[in-house]
Amino acid sequence: MSNVQKWGYACAGVGLVLAVGTFIGFALADGEGAKTTLLVAATVFTVAGANGLGAGLADNVKTGKWVGMIVGALGFIGWGIAWLGDSTLKTSFGWAAVFAAIAAVASMVPELFGGSSAPAATN
Fold first, then answer.
1. Is-contact 118 64, C-beta < 8 A?
2. What pTM was estimated for this model as a whole?
3. For position 78, what pLDDT does the model report?
4. How far apart are CA 63 and CA 107, in angstroms?
């Protein structure tokens, strides 16, 4: 297993654990502010986990970036549609959509957001 695969699978695992934990926290939280914070975090962790999984499966960081971009774009669309339709969690869904878009951009150009820990690709 290459360093890119190890890094990708590790990122996917951490992203999955954090996303599941924050989605559960969102479901159990009381108050709009707590729900918004947890849903935004869960969205970003999901995109990061997908980015790592893509890199791990393909053994290529560039593929991981594109997978993160696609998952972030789908999150933006999905949370945007939920924002349009739901009045009780409108703020939570709106911020989740915004941060899904930010996470998508961060997947493609991590240097804008502080760089990347991904190993240099050798292929």
1. yes
2. 0.88
3. 95
4. 10
Phi, psi for 20 (deg, rounded to 5): -60, -45
DSSP labels for the chain? --HHHHHHHHHHHHHHHHHHHHHHHHHH--SHHHHHHHHHHHHHHHHHHHHHHHHHHHT-HHHHHHHHHHHHHHHHHHHHHHHHH-SSSHHHHHHHHHHHHHHHHHHH-GGGGT---PPPP--
Rounded CA-CA distance 43/20 in Å is: 10
Closest CA to 118 of 107, 101, 32: 107
pLDDT value of position 121 = 53
Can you tell me the distance from the alpha carbon of 67 to that of 21, in angstroms, rounded to the nearest whole number? 22
Q: What is the mean pLDDT of each run of 10 residues along the chain (123 residues)?
A: 91 96 96 94 96 93 93 96 88 94 89 69 50
